[in-house]
Every structure is written in structure tokens, then in C-alpha cells.
Amino acid sequence: MQLDIALATDPRDIGVCMALRRAVFIDEQGVAEHEEIDGEDDACTHVLARFGAVPAGAARYRYLMDNGAHYAKIQRVCVPVGLRGHGVGAAVIGFIVEQVRAEKRTRLVRLGAQTHALAFYRKLGFREYGEEYDDAGIPHRDMEMKLR
């Protein structure tokens, strides 16, 4: 079955993204609901991946500025445990990077990666910067990719 990835603009699709995040971050990883549901979703562009009618992954991104650097930040990347290892996460990240490239608002993409996923993001072209930090009780490192 083919993986389809699209921007989630319909409220129902955004609801599916939120349900995937709840399953992965709150139920599986034990992140507190108030930390996962951070009030920033309206400021983000949401992405939903599906195998046919089956939700397979989600993420969001938004444009930010930090110390004069304008960048796109990828957040809340999640794939249900039963669908991991099938390239969904890499495809979602690739889709977002291509969206950012096409939107031409910045040439810098950043994310905060759980440290167990650093190798995954390195394979996709991201590089670490800064020190390790705690986010919702999970160790993270910031990573970035410069678009050409």
C-alpha cells in the first residue's frame, strides 16, 4: 500500500494528527497532556501521513525567528509503534523539508530531537548543535539542516 502525505487543513485531519500525537507522546511516552497540547497548534502547519485510510504519522512545523535567524521548526513528529520501521517518519520529514523549500521563506530547518532518534535525523541530513536538554522529561538535542 502506498504512503500518502499531505498538509492537514481540514479540522478532521488535524484531529487525526492530534489523536496520533496523543497515542505516541501522552499514552506511550508519558508526556503530560499540558506539555503536549501546548496551545501552539493554531500557529502551525500540520502534516498527516496515511497508508490508505490508516493514519500512519503526523508532524507540524512553523516559522520562527531566533537571534536574527529565520527558520522553520519541525515539531511533534510521531509514528504509531506498529508502523515504525517502514519509512513513515523519514517520508514525513522529507515532505516537510520540501514544503519549506517550496515556500521559500527560509533556508534553515530546525528540530528538537529526542536523543534516541539522533542517528535517524543525521541520516536525513540534520546536524546537532547546542547542549542536551530535558523536554517533558525526555532528553533532547537541537538539530538543523541548511537547505541549498
How are the elements arranged and paired?
Layout: E1 3-8, H1 11-28, H2 33-36, E2 45-51, E3 54-66, E4 69-78, H3 88-103, E5 108-114, H4 118-123, E6 127-135, E7 138-146
Parallel strand pairs: 4-5
Antiparallel strand pairs: 1-2, 2-3, 3-4, 5-7, 6-7
Provide structural commentary:
By secondary structure, the chain is an alpha+beta fold. The chain has one domain (3-146): Gcn5-related N-acetyltransferase (GNAT) (Aminopeptidase, 3-Layer(aba) Sandwich). Helices cover 30% and strands 41% of the residues. It has a 7-stranded mixed sheet with strand order 1-2-3-4-5-7-6, sandwiched between helices. Strand 3 (54-66) and strand 4 form a beta hairpin. The longest helix is centred in the N-terminal third of the chain and has 18 residues, at 11-28. It is globular, with a radius of gyration of 15 Å. The chain starts with a strand and ends with a strand.
In short:
With 148 residues, this protein is of the alpha+beta class. The protein is built from four helices and seven strands, in the order βααβββαβαββ.
